[in-house]
């Protein structure tokens, strides 16, 4: 009978210890962060942490705070955000639309690093690559606003920047007006040897929807309108501007 009582006591004690054990991040006052399974011992005077096969024991006074696994919030959560303020968004898709001066649906790949100003608003910087008649690197500022403080939420965005050419023009444009045509006779040479790419401004507002899958990973789908004006310089003071008006359709990955 006594053995049975001892076994029951040991079992109860084991269950109690197990129930008190949680997984999370332990933040020490010396700046260290340990991720693992933690348990208070010695009547709460010490904290035992099991991580990667190692066991550490710290005095309770050395612990700054603890974020348990159930308390760890993502950067986009229903409650107050944690220390995570930066997130990265990578997107790929097409610039859909038909026109005489470009492909029907050029491929676009962009990425941005963004900082949460508050729970809903973020600002960031990004760049990428877009394959128009020539290849360009869009460099832009990114502004986003979420409508809900939830893991799933629609959002609006605005990208504004500049298209930087990363290769020479491979097209010859005809019927081009010289920049000084109103001051001099029309020449015979239209500068058919090609034009130098100078890039141009970029504006891309739109609407998206994002879904966080875990603490640091999510996906998104976005559509928008993109305008960019590409500038070219040719021979004999010729200049050419080509305006692109496109619908952007992209899917993306969010991580931190």
TrEMBL record:
- The residues forming the signal peptide are 1-19
- Which superkingdom? Bacteria
**Per UniProt, which keywords does this protein have?**
Signal
What's the protein here called?
Answer: Uncharacterized protein
Please tell me the species this chain comes from. Answer: Draconibacterium sediminis
